[in-house]
Amino acid sequence: MDIIHLLSDNIANQIAAGEVVQRPASVVKELLENAVDAESSEIKLIIKDSGKTLVQVIDNGKGMSVTDARMSFERHATSKISKSEDLFAIRTMGFRGEALASIAAVAQVEVKTRREEDELGSAIQIEGSEYKSQEPVSTPKGTNIAVKNLFFNVPARRKFLKTNPVEMKHILDEFQRVSLAHPEIAFELYHNDIEIYRLPEAKLAKRIVDMFGKNYRTQLAQCEEETPYVNISGYVGKPEAAKKTRGDQYFFINHRFIKSPYLHHAVSAAFEGTIPEGHHPFYVLNIEIDPSHVDINIHPQKTEIKFDDEKAVYSILRSAVRQAVGVYNLTPSIDFESDINFGNLTNFPLPEKKPSAFEKSGSSIGNFEKSKKPDQPGDWKKLYEGLESAANFRQSEESISMTSKANNIDQDQKEQPIDLSKEDIEALQIHQKYLVVQVKSGMMLINQKAAWERILFEQYEKNLANKTGASQQLLFQKTLNLRPDEYAIAIELRDEIHSLGFGFEVFGQSSLIINGIPAELGDDEGSTLLQELIAEYKENETKLKLDKTTNLARSMAKRTAGKALKNMDKPEIRSMINRLFECSMPTYTPDGTKVMKIVSMEEIGELISESGGF
């Protein structure tokens, strides 16, 4: 008996839907991209219940004929390609012809569409791949498609959807990507009948400001570069606007959003020496390149691509961004009605920097700056300036025994005993950054910021578990204006944020009234820290698989550890070291950074010997 048979269209569509439609944001992406490909000048996105009840896109594009409207829901039906060669010349957003069929397999879909030359349009209703009706209808030019009750016929899939704020955050991400890629199109977004965005047709600079806020008006530097191989256009944030969290970095290839750690490294390299370590620049950059030079991964959820000459793209991109960073201060503000061209500033002197490993290996395109001269031999002595006071530090002749909580120390540290109960712990604080503690076989170096991060992380974990965070009420309440995606996170985490000591009330569409802050913070730090906390949480959620409590505790600890750095007297140093070794894992921060290191007497002797002795 034969056992191989063809799947029914309904089952095949549901399998395809498993790839194409993972959550409401997947539907948003496909429908917005279809609207863009239809040459629309106005696109409206309407969401209800974070897309679980309704995702509706209304555009004024070309519309479809009666036959095309029906064919658009068939598998592998597309207007974008007709022969295999077309796969290597794709400039549209979608081309596989599976999106609408996949969506219709797991939702109730209603479509109204009309071409400009047609007197009447066509209305179609489909439920779970089953056509319910198709009839003529009076409707404006363009397409109006409503996707209702996503996964109504696949309850197992529906239960895996996240909370409404999380799903809405993903929808906002997709909306922002498409609208940034196409500032020439007017976009609107409504959620539960509330207007979230109204973005008129504009230049890219104004689109960025309309989307992210007026603060960006003075933070943008234009980036332009044209070569025979690739053209680069867009904006980067000025160095002083760099943030400690990622999330505001957008790459587009031929106006299609992509993720590329390789290209991100090129931008970061261009900013090297201009922003603090651990900070990330803002950028919205579009790379125009002949599609034949790009290998497109046609899996619908993939955003990674590959160039046939990656080094060339890297070099050109880095050079373009480096130039923008170097000359931004020549133009104090951007004219939002016209584009700025820095083409006549190509000879502007750039800061010198040492070549990266990539630069040393050479590239087919691009010139790199000469490296700086190495430090002079005598410069090492500057490391010891200001440390004369250390000579007055009393040396202890006693060895210090270890407390039970130090058992988690690395193997090379376990033999180093520390009696934290002693009041005469020999310790020295250096520049509010490091502690040097004498141990039997040498000295222990403690990274003060890393230590506080570990201490505060475990404290915040307890606060979240027990809902016991101490809060101080503000005498004067403060208003915190958030971006829609940040606001969605704040609402989702309202109870947990309160447990950390923040108090707030909802105000308007995307603002909070801050009326309480953690007891250990000052009034001026509270609202700023809350926004940083939300941004850090969002970044962790994107990169790491952490539960809500761990993510929040890590985010809060990372944001507050730096604020705990100060000059400490001996009792404060002793207290901090005690708190550190009371932690469950005192030797590492939550992200795996080492907190301390033992330097043996032998290593100290070798260091002194290498420097010529005293």
Write a structural description.
- The chain folds into 3 domains: 9-199, Histidine kinase-like ATPase, C-terminal domain (Heat Shock Protein 90), CATH 3.30.565.10; 204-361, Ribosomal Protein S5, domain 2 (2-Layer Sandwich), CATH 3.30.230; 398-614, Ribosomal Protein S8, Chain: A, domain 1, CATH 3.30.1370.100.
- α8 (261-271) runs parallel beside α9 and α11 (448-466) packs antiparallel against α15.
- A hairpin with a 2-residue loop joins β7 and β8.
- The protein has helices at 9-20, 24-37, 66-71, 99-105, 155-158, 164-181, 204-212, 261-271, 310-327, 357-361, 448-466, 484-492, 494-499, 526-543, 548-561, 570-581, 601-610; strands spanning 42-48, 54-59, 108-114, 121-127, 130-137, 142-148, 186-191, 194-199, 220-226, 230-237, 249-253, 256-258, 283-289, 294-296, 305-307, 427-430, 434-439, 442-447, 471-481, 503-507, 511-518, 596-600.
- With 614 residues, the chain is α+β, with helices and mostly antiparallel strands.
- It is globular, with a radius of gyration of 29 Å.
- The protein contains 17 helices and 22 strands.
- Helix content is 31%, strand content 22%.
